[in-house]
Fold:
Amino acid sequence: MTKSKKIVRPNASRFDNAHHTEYHRALYDAVEEVDKQKLHVTDEMLKTWRAAIDTEEEINRETAASIYTQQLVEKDRERDTVLSFILGTINVNRYSTVKNMREASRVLTLVLKPYRGIQEEGFTAETAHVVGMLHDLDKQSAEVTLLGLDTSVEQLRTLNTDYEKLLKQRRTSEMASALPPSKVARPKTDGAWDIIADQIYASYLLTATDADRDLIAKLIADVNKISADFKEIHNMTIAQRAAAEKKKKGGGDKKPSDPKKPSDPKKPDDGKKPGGGDTPKPGREEDPGEDQV
Structure:
């Protein structure tokens, strides 16, 4: 007896908005190519599914085109620049020839270790973490002043506050929109596909001819390939984020040796170079929307 083919359904609710929409569009195109009567899929089912996909696409387009979105991207770039300057200044002063500046750098390095690399985080997470970072810096005002970072810290505070205001304004704008939020639209798309997927599988099991069974089996294979491809893309994205997080957490544990003192030329260092990559780099180019936009 030939083993029956089952439709594999990945947890598409975990996909980001763009991938979720593209996933359903790919599934729809595959299903639409097959005689719907052989699949026992009605025009109404396809219409409902297509309408849900179109709604998601409109939400994505509206979000990408939003003036607030563009402003948020620009504001985040400014914020990342200031963050990198603050963290970079602290890092460089670990090797200062002035003892109290080295000590200030050491203290702030320990205090800010949890925040290294936050420029690479999602926009919402970064905003929350900057609030925590500023709170911790306020407790170390003497060290901040000693390293000449008072102005930069206040600049970061202003930028983060402005970013939060823009987020609030965008949410207000979205509430006034006729389109539903993504968290409402996406389950409707998933639900429409679930109904059609059940019809396809039932048709595969109950069809009376081998020719029709082979036809539906090929469709199921195509659907499963699409699901596997998008799941792989999702997993790769998660793995890349996890690797970046691991690197961020592990980077602060390295302790380069102090530079050799000119007065002690015979004392070799241990071969490590100072500043071994601890300074985070800005430049995340993505849409601000783990609000998921």
